[in-house]
Amino acid sequence: MPEDGEQSRHTRARPLASWREHHGWSAAASLRRLASRPFGTLLTIAVMGLALALPLTFYLLLGNVQHLGDALGRNPAISVFLQPGQPGSVAQLLAKQIEANDDVAGVTVKTPQQGLDELSRMQGFSSALQSLDDNPLPYVLKVQPRDSLDAAGVSRLATDLRGLHGVDMVQDSGAWRQRLDALLDVGNRIVLILAGLLALAALLVVGNTVRVDIASRTDEIGVLMLVGASRAFVRRPYLYAGIWYGLFSGMLAVVLALLVELALAGPVASLSQAYGGALHIGGLPPWLLLAVPVAAGVLGWLGARLVSAWQLRRAA
């Protein structure tokens, strides 16, 4: 009885070992087949790699536009001008009241003398200020919103500040922030649409390449199916070919995107110096660089799977 159980386990293990062996053979055979026609293989990989690199490049450029917006004051401080004649005690009390708001990161009090000193350093104002008998400038509160606050939240905060007692005027560049956010939203949507269209193009390239390969081996496939080979057995090498195409083209897309990033490093460094080092280039995240070849491999497998299934149905 134990011998029968052992024989049964060996019988079950044999198909699994054969299945693993054929997968290994299919992966190696498909890779050798791609290497046997290097020009066509490299051309297909280059086309797919360029198609996949375009959305990566746009994503990189869009991210750096956002960094540029932050460096140029995408979320600048809101200037709250108190009514003329308000004493410093009122300014300090109002600053503490504003600081208690959850949407506020900090408040800085600028005295009338500090404002006057800033004006005197500006060209053309020095002589005019000397003729003043007293300082006409009010206290100004520089309110810094939280970094996570969006344009709509900053606009609401500015509206709340205008309603405070003793406030004469609130200066906020919320309209510029809203325009920048709207442009970035449009850019994100364009990147998603472009990625979808180019992924479809890559899928079609793989599908057409596999279709041509299957069409050139119709007689060989017919013989295999006559001797009892299943469709899954016949199409397995073509599925691995699609995976290789996708994987290599994804790696090429990552290399091209990194070259674009490297090409931008010099001009961005010069621009950062012009803005006092506040601007830094934002590279592609590591998870995305690792995900692109994997996703491209899945895309290549899907294209090969769809076309090979259709071709084999016609050949049956």
SS elements, strand count: 4
Order of helices and strands: HHEHEHHEHEHHHH
What is the strand arrangement across the widest sheet?
A: 2-3-1-4
Mean pLDDT score: 79
**Unreliable runs:** 6-11
Protein model, in words:
The chain has 316 residues and is of the alpha+beta class. The chain folds into two domains: 25-71 and 180-315, no CATH class; 78-172, Alpha-Beta Plaits. Helices cover 74% and strands 7% of the residues. The protein has ten helices and four strands. It has a four-stranded antiparallel sheet with strand order 2-3-1-4. Helix 2 (38-71) packs antiparallel against helix 7 and helix 2 (38-71) runs parallel beside helix 9. The chain is elongated, with a radius of gyration of 33 Å. The model is unreliable at 6-11 (pLDDT under 50).
Short description:
With 316 residues, the chain is an alpha+beta fold. It has two domains: 25-71 and 180-315, no CATH class; 78-172, 2-Layer Sandwich (Alpha-Beta Plaits), CATH 3.30.70. It has helices at 2-36, 38-71, 88-99, 112-121, 126-130, 151-162, 174-215, 218-226, 231-274, 286-315, and strands spanning 78-82, 104-110, 140-145, 167-171.
Keywords:
316 residues, 10 helices, 4-stranded antiparallel sheet, Alpha-Beta Plaits, 2 domains
List the helices and strands and how they pair.
Layout: H1 2-36, H2 38-71, E1 78-82, H3 88-99, E2 104-110, H4 112-121, H5 126-130, E3 140-145, H6 151-162, E4 167-171, H7 174-215, H8 218-226, H9 231-274, H10 286-315
Antiparallel strand pairs: 1-3, 1-4, 2-3
Helix pairs in contact: 1-9, 2-7, 2-9, 6-7, 7-9, 7-10, 9-10
